[in-house]
Amino acid sequence: MGNFDQKEGVSGYSFLQAPDAQEAVAPIDYAFRNGEHIQLHGKQEFMFRFIESNYESIKTYYRDFYGASVESDGESINKYFYIEILPESRGQIPYFNRYPLPNEYVIIGFLLYKIVFIDGFIELDSISAFQRIVRQDYEELKPGLYRILARVKKPTPTELDDEKVDTIIEKALKEFNKIGWVDLEDDRFEILPSFQRLVKLYGDYINDPKLWDKEDPQS
Question: Which has the higher per-residue pLDDT, 138 or 123?
């Protein structure tokens, strides 16, 4: 285990020796362990730049010690980093919170993606506006949406109404905030570049609703 460069005489985990390591390593590790995506945004910028400058060393460290892979996606200002648990380590490593989103939040994520990126509501930036758009502008989708949400949450369909769906939307945005897909403050939110990972993780589900019956779409 480990990587030692005899020529340089330093550990392969050279990021630990970087000038900013003392300030950067602990916050980065905390974020990765909690399933957070790190990108060029706000307080994450310092962590992002540290990872980008020390990417191969950090990637080697997490692979060797935790059986996890530090991955990146997106380009330029839309680039982001995240942790992927390697298949051979899945279920064996307690070090990371492998945080699968509840199915109802995945569905809300797809709905938000459709509204913003497909239908062009690019100025959508508040939970209350999102809730209002679903109620007023997507009336034709509501029966199917309520039916799907009822199915994945396991109550009877008659138990879901506008108020309960509003609550699911609010909870979903709070979860997206935790993993760095949106930046949420009170009612206002900003969709971050890593939100695009939603489609890469769950893209099959949008075309195959039968799969939404599975308890864990990541399993």
Answer: 123
Tokens of 204: 């099959």
Boundaries of every domain in the chain:
9-89, 103-213
**103-213, CATH topology level:** Arc Repressor Mutant, subunit A (1.10.10)
Cβ atoms within 10 Å of 70's Cβ, excluding its own = 22
Distance, CA of 122 to CA of 190 (rounded, Å)? 10
| Phi, psi for residue 86 in degrees, rounded to 5 | -70, 145
User: pTM surpassing 0.85?
Assistant: no
Taking the CA atoms of 12, 15, 18 and 23 in sequence, report the sign of the dihedral they define. negative
- pLDDT tens readout for residues 77-111: 999 999 988 776 655 555 566 667 888 898 899 89
- Fold of the CATH domain 9-89: Arc Repressor Mutant, subunit A (1.10.10)
CA atoms of 110 and 118, how far apart (whole Å): 10
Strands 182-185 and 4-5: unpaired
Q: ∠197-53-40 over CA atoms, to 5°? A: 40
